[in-house]
Specification:
This protein has 477 residues and is an alpha+beta fold. Helix content is 34%, strand content 30%. It has helices at 11-19, 41-44, 54-60, 71-88, 109-124, 136-145, 159-162, 176-184, 190-195, 198-205, 208-216, 246-267, 299-314, 338-342, 354-372, and strands at residues 2-7, 28-32, 35-39, 65-68, 92-96, 99-104, 129-133, 151-153, 232-243, 270-280, 284-296, 323-334, 384-385, 396-408, 414-419, 429-440, 447-455, 460-466, 469-476. Strands 14-15-16-17-18-19 form a six-stranded antiparallel β-barrel. The longest helix is centred in the middle third of the chain and has 22 residues, at 246-267. The radius of gyration is 27 Å and the shape is globular. It starts with a strand and ends with a strand.
C-alpha cells in the first residue's frame, strides 16, 4: 500500500479565468487572509509568487487585480476530479481544492498512478504535481518537488534523504515554543533533526522526542481517510403527472424528508448539508444546496429546509416549466447533534455562536457570488487604500487594468462604455463624468487622461485613456 499526493496549484486561476473571461491576459492573484494563494501567468512575470503578502504584491504591479478566495466554487470544480480518483481507489481524502491524498493498492501501482496523472491532467487542463511514497508526509513533499505531469516516487528507505532540506515550520506538527527551542540548538530542518543525538533529543523534549524522531524519518503516523465520495442519503420522487402547483411539490418534499429521517434514525446520525435537484419538462435541471446552520434529523426540519431550497431555486415566483422529478440528498453525516456542536464554542455574550455565525456567513457569500459573480462581494482587506493625494476622490478602491470599449461625444468626453466585447453585452452602461485630470506614471510612464465617472447602479469608475485605448483603472462602490 502506497500513498499518492495530488497537487493542483493553479485550480483557482483556472476557475477565475473561466468565469471572468477578461482576466485571461491580465495580471491577477487569488488571496486569502492577506496572503497570495494563486498567481496568474501575467502576474508571475512581475515577480509575484505564492505566500507573499498582498501589500507586497501591489508594490510589484500597479495594475494587479486581487480576487478573494472562493473555496465553495473551487470545490465544485474539483468534484469531477475527485470522482475520477475514486474510480481508481476507494480511499480518497480531499484536503483542499489544491491537494488530495489517494491510497493506492494492488499491483502495478507506478503504472496505474502515472495513467491516473495523465487522465486528471486531460480532465482539468492544468499541470498536476504528484508524489508517491509510504506516508502522507513524504508523498506531499515529493509532490512539491515533482515536475508538472510527472510522477515522483520515493522508494522505501530513501525518506530521510528526501526530507533533508524540509523546514520544520512547514510541517505544522510542532508548536512555536518547540520550534524556538530547536532553533536554539541549531535545528531548522528535518535533516538537522535526524543528525541530533537521540539522548540530547530525549533530554530536551521528553515525550515529544519520539514523535520528532519519527518525523525525521518521514513517519507521520497519519492514515488516508475515506472522505470522498461523501456519505449521503438521497430519495427521488417522480411525478406521475407534471407538477404545476406548490401542493404537489410540498407532498414530494414530505415523502423525501420522511425517507431521509427514517434512514438517519436507523443510523443514529445527523445531516449537516442538503441538496435539492429538480427536473423540469423539456429536460432542464436546477440545483440548490445549503450548508445547514444546525444538524437535522427529523422529518419536519428536513422538510422545511427542502422547501426553502425550492423557493430559493424559483426565487419565490411561479416556475415557468412544470416539474417532473425531485431528488433530495442529505450529506455530511455524523453522530454529533446540535447541542454537542454548541459545546465547542464557549460564548455567553453573543446571540449567535461563532461556528454558527461563520457557517451562515460562508453560506450567504457563496449564494451571492453564485448569482451575481465572484466580485459581487469582496473583503475590505483586499481593497487598496488610496494615496493621500487621492483621498478626495476614492478612499477605498478596487484597482484593475481592464480594457473597455468607450463611446465619446463631440467634445471627446465618455458617455457610455461596454465591458468585454460589444457582442457579449447588448446594453451599454451609461455614465456621467464627475471629474477629469492628467496622470503620468513617474519617469518611464506615458501621459494618460483620467476620468472619474458615475454609473446608475455600479458606483464610481476611474477610466484612463492612453494611446487611443481605454482602461478601467479602479472601481469604487
Amino acid at each position: 500500500m502506497l500513498v499518492a499526493c495530488f497537487l493542483f496549484r493553479d485550480i483557482a486561476i483556472v476557475c477565475e479565468s473561466a468565469r471572468l473571461l477578461h482576466l485571461r491576459h491580465e495580471p491577477f492573484i487569488v488571496a486569502m487572509d492577506e496572503l497570495v494563494v494563486a498567481v496568474s501567468e501575467a502576474a508571475s512575470h512581475c515577480g509575484i509568487r505564492a505566500n507573499m503578502s498582498v501589500t507586497a504584491t501591489r508594490s510589484l504591479c500597479s495594475s494587479l487585480i486581487i480576487l478573494p478566495y472562493d473555496r465553495a466554487a473551487y470545490v465544485r470544480a474539483m468534484e469531477s476530479v475527485w470522482d475520477l480518483l475514486a474510480v481508481e481507489s476507494s480511499t480518497v481524502e480531499p484536503v483542499s481544492p489544491e491537494s488530495c491524498f489517494v491510497q493506492m493498492e494492488g499491483r502495478d501501482i507506478l503504472e496505474r498512478t502515472q495513467q491516473l496523472v495523465s487522465a486528471v491532467s486531460d480532465r482539468i487542463g492544468i499541470a498536476v504535481h504528484v508524489g508517491l511514497a509510504n506516508t502522507k508526509l513524504v508523498a506531499h513533499q515529493a509532490a512539491l518537488q515533482s515536475k508538472p505531469g510527472k510522477l515522483l516516487a520515493i522508494r522505501l528507505g530513501d525518506e530521510p534523504y528526501m526530507l533533508t532540506n524540509v523546514p520544520l515550520h512547514a510541517l505544522g506538527k510542532l508548536d512555536r515554543k518547540q520550534l524556538q527551542r530547536l532553533e536554539r540548538l541549531g535545528v531548522k530542518t528535518l535533516g538537522d533533526l535526524s543528525r541530533l543525538p537521540p539522548q540530547e533529543l530525549q533530554r530536551q523534549f521528553k515525550q515529544m522526542s519520539w514523535l520528532m524522531q519519527r518525523l525525521a524519518h518521514g513517519e507521520d503516523g497519519e492514515r488516508v481517510r475515506r472522505l470522498w465520495p461523501p456519505r449521503s442519503i438521497g430519495f427521488t420522487f417522480g411525478f406521475g403527472d407534471e407538477a404545476i402547483d406548490l401542493g404537489s411539490i410540498s407532498h414530494a418534499l414530505a415523502e423525501c424528508s420522511d425517507h431521509i429521517a427514517c434512514s438517519l434514525a436507523r443510523r443514529v446520525e445527523y445531516c449537516r448539508a442538503l441538496k435539492l435537484v429538480a427536473r423540469f419538462a423539456g429536460d432542464t435541471w436546477a440545483t440548490q444546496e445549503e450548508r445547514l446552520k444546525h444538524p437535522l434529523h427529523t422529518s419536519k426540519t428536513i422538510y422545511r429546509a427542502g422547501l426553502r431550497l425550492f423557493e430559493r431555486m424559483t426565487h419565490g415566483r411561479p416556475w415557468k416549466e412544470p416539474a417532473t422529478e425531485l431528488t433530495l440528498t442529505a450529506s455530511d453525516l455524523s453522530v454529533g447533534s446540535a447541542i454537542q456542536l454548541s459545546l465547542l464554542d464557549g460564548n455567553a455574550f453573543e446571540h449567535e455562536l461563532p461556528h454558527e455565525h461563520l457557517c451562515r456567513l460562508e453560506e450567504a457569500l457563496s449564494h451571492i457570488r453564485s448569482r451575481f459573480g465572484s466580485e459581487a462581494i469582496t473583503p475590505l482587506k483586499l481593497r487598496c487604500e488610496a494615496r493621500r493625494i487621492d483621498l478626495w476622490r476614492t478612499p477605498l478602491v478596487r484597482r484593475r487594468h481592464e480594457r473597455v470599449h468607450v463611446e465619446v461625444d463631440q467634445r471627446g468626453m465618455p458617455v457610455r462604455f461596454w465591458r468585454g466585447s460589444r457582442a457579449e453585452s447588448a446594453s451599454p452602461m451609461e455614465i456621467n463624468v464627475r471629474d477629469i485630470w492628467k496622470e503620468t506614471a513617474w519617469f518611464w510612464g506615458e501621459n494618460a487622461t483620467a476620468y472619474l465617472v458615475e454609473s446608475a447602479g455600479d458606483g464610481l469608475y476611474e477610466i484612463h485613456h492612453r494611446k487611443a485605448a481605454w482602461f478601467i483603472a479602479g472601481i469604487s462602490d
